Amino acid sequence: MTTVPIDLHADAMRTALARRKPWGALCAAGLGLTLFQGCANHQAASSFAAQTSSLTGIVKTEFTQLDALCVWQGELDIVTANRDDERPLEACRQYQAAQGRLADATVTVLDGYAQALAALADDKTFDLSPDLDGLGQKLQGLKDKEGRALVSDREAGALTKLAQALLRIATERKRAEGIAEMVRQVPDLRVTGQLLKSFFIASADAPPGRAQPPYRNFAAILQQRGEQSGKLLNGPALRAAEPIRTAELRRELGRHAALLRSRAEGADPEVPRRIAEAIDAWQQTLDVFESDALKIEPAVLLERLKALRVKLQAARQAAGIKGQGSGS
Fold it and tell me: Is residue 200 classed exposed, middle or buried when 0-12, 13-18 and 19+ CB atoms within 10 A define those classes?
């Protein structure tokens, strides 16, 4: 039997692949067949991680913007109504203590997934323990002000299992096995993505505390409070007492009102709709990621990632977030 040295097989494989798609050219630079087999897999994982990170970045920025609007509106309420308490600001803190904690936990887990997957793909170390430790305790007993559950057992279980898997993978430090394990988390990722989407638009499977989208409710409340402040600022009492400062506050209130219109007005406000569409596109990519992530040439996954980038950019523009975000 005639034998052919393995390096000749590798040379032939590298030559053939270098003439094909860009990922093949990148893999062809490897020194052996084993290195090649892992290269495309890692590139696919890295791209999906980047787009997941882009999605969580948009959501985190939008939550931060809405929180800042709440604080500004609360301070305006105190000034215009000449209040001697901080109840408007306390309302912001109460929202953060309930809905905000669940939103933060959800984004933290998805962002942790993106960080871990990117680190494995790039063969870098990572530590998620400060963010994910004790996540189960954060979810326990989360209720709205009426005492209704904000998270279902299924959702809490998916978040907790994801967090535990990420911590385990970080400890084991095995690159190829870690990426394969990350792919196996898709069922819990799907539940977590749906949970995140339910913050922005109505979801039939949401528990009583989230029967109405928390984001939409919060934005609508801020808009109503802004309209009340506007009436006071346009009234004769404040305009006579503090004409210059009142005029400044009216202009600033007008800018904030414009931000809230795209978040709260009508049956289908643009910002939550665009973010929900981006989450839908991420979910569609997730379906293919589960089946194609470990393929050498995941063509369908690449197409889904392109479509996801379009939706992410639309959400970013609607929310007024500058830049293209991470990923390519």
Answer: buried
Using alpha carbons, select from 125, 129, 130, 71 the residue that is nearest to residue 96: 71
* Residue 242: Cβ within 10 Å count: 14
Q: What is the pLDDT along the chain (328 residues), one digit of tens a residue?
A: 444 343 443 444 344 434 444 434 334 333 333 333 444 457 888 999 999 999 999 999 999 999 999 999 999 999 888 888 999 999 888 887 777 788 888 999 999 999 999 999 888 888 777 778 777 777 767 777 788 888 888 998 999 999 999 988 888 878 888 889 999 999 999 999 999 999 999 988 888 888 889 898 899 999 999 999 999 999 988 888 888 989 999 999 999 999 999 999 888 899 999 999 999 999 999 989 989 988 888 999 999 999 999 999 999 999 999 766 655 4
Which residues are CB-neighbours of 65 under 8 A, at least 6 positions away?
259, 319, 320
Q: Distances in Å between the alpha carbon of 125 and those of 10, 169, 218?
A: 30, 11, 38
Cβ atoms of 214 and 159 closer than 8 Å: no
Q: Residue 64 to residues 70, 199, 242, 255: CA-CA distances in angstroms? A: 10, 14, 31, 17
Taking the whole predicted model, whether its pTM rises above 0.90 is answered as no
292 close to 298: Cβ distance less than 8 angstroms = yes
Name all contacts of 284-293 with Cβ < 8 Å and 24+ positions apart: 284/308, 285/48, 285/51, 286/186, 286/189, 286/190, 286/193, 289/44, 289/48, 289/183, 289/186, 290/183, 290/186, 292/44, 293/41, 293/44, 293/45, 293/48, 293/179, 293/183
Distance CA 272, CA 24 (A): 39
